[in-house]
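User: Here's a protein and a ligand (manganese (II) ion). What would the complex look like?
Assistant: Let me lay out the input and then the predicted complex.
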Amino acid sequence: MLFSPLDPATARILVTNDDGINAPGLVSLFEIARALSKDVWVVAPETNQSGAAHSLSLSKPLRAREVSERKWAVDGTPTDCVLFGVRHLMGENPPTLVLSGVNRGTNLADDVTYSGTIAAAMEGCLLGIRSIAMSQSYTHPEPVKWETGEKHGPEVVRRVLAIEWSREALINVNFPDVGPGDVEGMEITRQGQRGFGGHIVERLDPRGTPYYWINYTPTEKDLVPGTDIEAIRRGAISINPLHLDLTHETMRRRLRDAFTRK
Ligand code: MN
């Protein structure tokens, strides 16, 4: 099952993110979308949903606020936003492209399982729409180089849309932490690996009761050539196709053999 190539000028684009409706990266992504098509809608979470992953609000109502024409804020998760946009707001004439981001910070390797940015693209994919997540690498506390994604984002989208595209795939794009003129090209990558290198911070509230805060700092394992992490560290744009089939094929066969043994 393939999507045929799509002329971006004819695309009906739904823009979303996980950093929230007021995030600067949403402005960047809107600029990227507008460079491709005039038909752009925005539905983004009211509050920062980073780390929300693919969560869906099932036990609370959603409030939707029209910020301006074709721009809505929803007090839910990125997944809620995509569902609201596709199945309600644009329901008569659904989008042909979902763009999510531009996230403040990378979504590489194992990050993709935590990421609300990626999850919005997952939801678009599940709804049968071409979907691309975009994230911008940066070094705290330096300013985020949004101009890098703004410069290269439209071309990345054009090139990805120009090919036949498996309907099971979404695209995870990361921009390196270099200026727009210093990018070392675009690279097709696979998902790398890294581990949880953070720790749990313990503090005391004003009444002396401890509370805890997860300090998420991914560790860096060896930089394996061909992976998303390695491309980003080298200053290239990483373009990594993902899919939602999480089955581990080797283990499936091993288990099947073990369980069917006489
Ligand atoms: Mn985020």
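Summary: The mean pLDDT is 96.
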